[in-house]
Amino acid sequence: MASGPTVGRIPITGIFLILFSLASGATQAEESELLRPGSMSLALTFTTQADQGLYSLAWSPNSQTLACGGLNKIWLFSAPGFGALGRLAAEQGEVWGLAWAPTGNLLISGGIDGSLIWWENRTLLKTRNEGGAIYDVAFSPDGRELAVADDSATTKIWKIEGYPRSTIQLDGAGLGVSWAPHGRDLVIGTGQGGSSLLVLDANSAEVRWRSQNVPSGYRAPYGFGKDEVNGVAYSPTGNWIAAAFQDGRILIFGARTGRKHLGLQLHRPGSGGARRVTWSADGKWIASCGEDGRVNLVSFSHPNRRVELLSTSKAVWEVAFSPDNRWLAAVGDEGRVWVWDVSSQSDRSSPSNRNRHSNHSRHGRR
After folding, report:
1. 3-state DSSP call for residue 343?
2. Tens of pLDDT along 134-183?
3. Tens digits of per-residue pLDDT, 60-104?
4. What is the C-alpha radius of gyration for the chain, rounded to an integer number of angstroms?
5. Residue 332, φ and ψ in degrees, nearest 5
6. Rounded CA gap, 287 and 231, in Å?
7. What predicted TM-score, i.e. pTM, was given to this entire model?
8. Distance of alpha carbon 86 from alpha carbon 177, whole angstroms
9. Which of 35, 145, 206, 287 is most deeply packed, by most CB within 10 A?
10. Which among 172, 261, 161 is positioned nearest to 212, based on CA atoms?
């Protein structure tokens, strides 16, 4: 049974096909089924069973360490060989928020118990209380502040020294947060009755734009919000924002205007919805994961070119590219981490078909 960070969810089984129309420039796109995967795939480089469940992940700035948040633990792996570096005793319950500072060895974890922990060189430095179950964390580009999304319908901005600077009220539980790579803007995804995408100035809390995108034919399963925005990510240039919706869509918006640019039905609506979305460091690729157990890789310039990297029976909660553009990692309810080598895609416009491989979890090694 899929379960997520939203309190009180009672997922139900079933597949619901929806019809939505999305303006993209002068064109109109209609999709009533999942985008079909292409015939190409990438090789699975590494997989291991680390915990009874993994909920978050983060790459170090030099791409040499992968951190994975589990139940009261954070697991560390060393790239490129992905040998185990040990684990941190977080004691935060499910660790849904995880982020490395842009420079140095500082790692911050956010737990379902509402706590934030500062780690440096695998040593616990300090613990702070956010006040609500934490679902996502993001560093400012200069590394001086941390934005934290939690279920108290707020996003708090913390100074890196360990004290809160401001609290921003939201229209629902904060589920995803991403800082613009340039400037002071934040994008936040909310759940419950809000189920909105919100872009605002982190200094003044002035709203740049807000968008609620619930398809007219979508009916949320019992226990879910209206159409939760579970994950958000600025593109490396800061020109685009990608968002993952509970109805299974990945939508791309102009960061300044809020205008919808692209829509893809990559995951199953409702209880199989999209959870997170991420950009490759060169901005050419988008990856998504969902409660339907899928991980997808899509070309941004040619979105009909898609690779389904994973299809497993349990939810995949997080997916992220390494900063050096070499690796794509995912974690999920199986307690497993998966890593693919995507370096061959850095200078290509479509995924390589030289390394065909079945990447389902049954081929992993423990």
Report:
1. helix
2. 999 999 999 999 999 999 998 999 999 999 999 999 999 999 999 999 98
3. 999 999 999 999 999 999 999 999 999 999 999 999 999 999 988
4. 19
5. -160, -165
6. 12
7. 0.85
8. 28
9. 287
10. 172
